[in-house]
Design goal:
The protein is an alpha/beta fold. The chain has helices at 37-42, 68-82, 99-109, 132-143, 210-217, 238-245, 263-274, 298-301, 311-322, 328-337; strands spanning 10-17, 23-24, 30-31, 52-61, 89-93, 116-119, 153-157, 160-163, 168-169, 178-179, 187-190, 193-196, 226-230, 250-255, 278-283, 303-305. The protein has 10 helices and 16 strands. The strands form 4 sheets. The chain has an 8-stranded mixed β-sheet. The protein has a 4-stranded parallel β-sheet with strand order 13-14-15-16, with helices on both faces. The radius of gyration is 20 Å and the shape is globular. Bound molecules: succinic acid.
């Protein structure tokens, strides 16, 4: 008798919506999150060759409507799944628009070495040549790959594997929208076969100080308000003052160039910092490192430099950082560590 085949690994598939679950309406229009996760799985029978999959529809939204409450709910669901010894990994279907923020949030709060993979698509499920089915196949394959363990939360799309910390959406419509321009890809995946490159360089998941904190009380916690303001030529102080008046405990500035901003806006940020609002300088350029004390005297003004994080990820880290401390030096160290 031939030896019995090894049982397939088990993967939990958590669905949140997005274009991967989108359906055409009229003309070129479509509605994100129209299809259930059962319909997406049924459309890719080849998934049954990779894993036994159990599904949960955690949310059904376009990711422009993603909220911190859904992040917390998702984190709790992921934590529960990875704590189950019968499960090998987790895949999350998600809209591409804010996928990088959800991925980075989970990268900081979920305590595990198991693969956690976010996947989306640029074309709706009902489109000609939809990219979702192969992306989903690849994501499930990565969630079962031993080499994916310990690499933090990953994003899979367009035959590429990205680290949550590095990935950014860079194009409105094209399939190759995700890029990890700064430190590069986590790897490639071809029809489910992974090819991993170097491991991630910064702290994440099991080594994150936020993991135990959030895992303990993820569904009850609320995150502090952190606003994100895009700097531009001729900027005044109105939006900065409005954010402070709205109760922001932190403010991320997507600054020009090296995280810079004009004198009027700078003065408003300095006043906000004196009132105890944590000010993080990031860059709107999409690349490079924002360092301390180059054009702006961060030490004197009490600012934090975003280092390598883009503004939207700097906001995620600042929200989590502010749940632990308001000490500027400690917050700055977090931007060097994560
Ligand atoms: C969304 O982010 O939900 C819409 C866009 C997409 O998924 O590609």
């Amino acid at each position: 008798m031939p030896p019995a085949a090894a049982p397939l690994p088990c993967v939990r598939l958590l669905a949140t919506g997005g274009t991967i679950a989108g359906a055409h309406t009229t003309g070129r229009g479509y509605r994100a999150a129209a299809l259930s996760i059962d319909a997406l799985v049924a459309a890719v029978p080849q998934l049954a060759t990779l894993a036994r999959i159990d599904v949960e529809q955690v949310a059904k939204l376009g990711s422009q409507d993603m909220t911190e409450a859904v992040w917390r709910k998702l984190a709790a669901r992921v934590q529960r799944a990875v704590d189950n010894p019968a499960l090998t990994g987790v895949v999350i279907t998600h809209g591409t628009d804010t996928m990088e923020e959800t991925a980075y949030f989970l990268n900081l709060v979920v305590r595990t070495d198991k693969p956690v993979v976010l996947v989306g698509a640029m074309r709706p499920a009902t489109a000609m040549s939809a990219d979702g089915p192969m992306n989903l196949f690849n994501a499930i394959a990565i969630a079962t790959a031993p080499a994916a363990r310990g690499r933090g939360v990953l994003v899979v799309a367009n035959d590429e594997i990205h680290f949550a910390r590095e990935v950014a959406k860079t194009n409105t419509t094209q399939l190759g929208t995700f890029a990890s321009g700064q430190r590069g890809l986590a790897g490639l995946v071809n029809s489910g076969r992974p090819h991993f490159y170097a491991p991630p360089v910064r702290r994440h998941t099991a080594a994150s100080e936020f993991a135990p904190l959030i895992a303990a009380s993820v569904s009850e916690r609320t995150l502090p308000r952190v606003d994100l303001i895009f700097a531009h030529a001729g900027m005044d102080r109105a939006l900065i003052d409005a954010a402070v008046a709205a109760g922001a405990r932190g403010l991320v500035i997507a600054g020009v160039g090296d995280g810079n901003l004009g004198a009027t806006a700078l003065a408003a940020c300095a006043e906000a910092a004196k009132k105890g609002v944590a000010i993080v300088r990031a860059s709107r350029t999409g690349g490079g490192v924002v360092e301390r004390n180059i054009e702006i005297d961060d030490d004197r003004l009490g600012f934090i430099a975003a280092n390598e994080l883009n503004p939207q990820k700097a906001r995620v880290l600042l929200m989590l950082g502010l749940t632990c401390t308001r000490d500027l030096r400690m917050l700055q160290e977090m931007f060097f560590a994560y």
